Amino acid sequence: MQFQQLRYFTAVAETRHFTQAARREHVAQPSLSQQIRSLERELGAELFHRARGHISLTDAGAALLPLARRILADAETARREVQEVAQLRRGRVRLGAPPSLCASLVPDVLRTFRDSYPGVELFVHEDGSQDLVRSLAAGELDLALIITPVPGQAPALTTQELLREELVVISSPNAPSPSASSRGYPMPVRGASAGAEPRIRIEDLRETPLVMFRRGYDLRELTLAACQRAGFEPSFSVEGGEMDAVLGFVRSGLGVAVVPRMVATRSGLRTTPLAPPGLHRTISVAHRSDVSPPRAARELQRIITTHRA
Asked: Within this chain, do residues 155 and 270 fall inside the same structural domain, yes or no?
């Protein structure tokens, strides 16, 4: 049984005329009649009483008509639903991002996407980069903004580098400046030219209490690795926080923290750059290599890339 046969049958049943039905379906009348006869043979029953100048439904035809209409309606609904998704009128995108990007890059990107595709649902999962990699591997996300390169045994991911972020030191505006000489705060870089932006070195954080992110945050791992390369283990005044909590702890004067400059700019906290070579992290957009992202996710990735540019 074919959709075309059901369409022709429904047209004849509604017009009670083979020629009119053929005209409505834009097909030659002999071809329509042949398809109806083929359908009757397949079903093993005549569907129409054929009298000269009069066509009427048999009992079998009357039983088939509401079912044929329902099948054709369901097929049209399926076609329309798929087209809406394909044309980005509907659908869903699951995006993962670190809290630092959720507070800076992501809102602008999502606003642009939402303006263009208001019918597509957006789901955002905020987590550390390592946890986002695991969520991608488990199929729980379509796309994720992660820190690359991915350490350890990473799943097969396709990544596209977006930007290289500078990391800076933030401190409370009410606390002594990180360039002050008071105990517990780092000293300014020696030899800094007059009028230049004050900078500090990683080793100057040796005696400075740090507000540290929870385990699994890339910022935690980057900061610890930098301190260890400088030959010391940092001391924590408090640890285990998410981004908002870390900013709040720094604002209250509990210590300093190392965060991306984009976050620092929006935080209202005192920002002190690190001396060359400084600290940076690379942000990439990633998806599983073995699964092609939905079209809506591919379009979001295009917008992310364009926004970066």
From this structure: yes
